[in-house]
Model the fold of this input.
Amino acid sequence: MSIAEVTSRQHRRRVRVWFGEHVIAQYVAEEPLAARYEQAMRRRFAGLKVTNDLLGPLESTD
Done:
């Protein structure tokens, strides 16, 4: 992995929508897009947990 890839991944976020303990939607993007997606999912799934976490350099996006 190159330095550019590591630097790029350090600013990526993973947004997940949870139904109990199950992830029903996941989205990985740069911080501004992830924040926008998070807000959209909070409106769409008002009763469900929505998380927005920093995607570390060693984590997989799968």
Summary: Residues 3-54 form one domain. The first strand starts at residue 12 and ends at 19. The chain has one domain: 3-54.
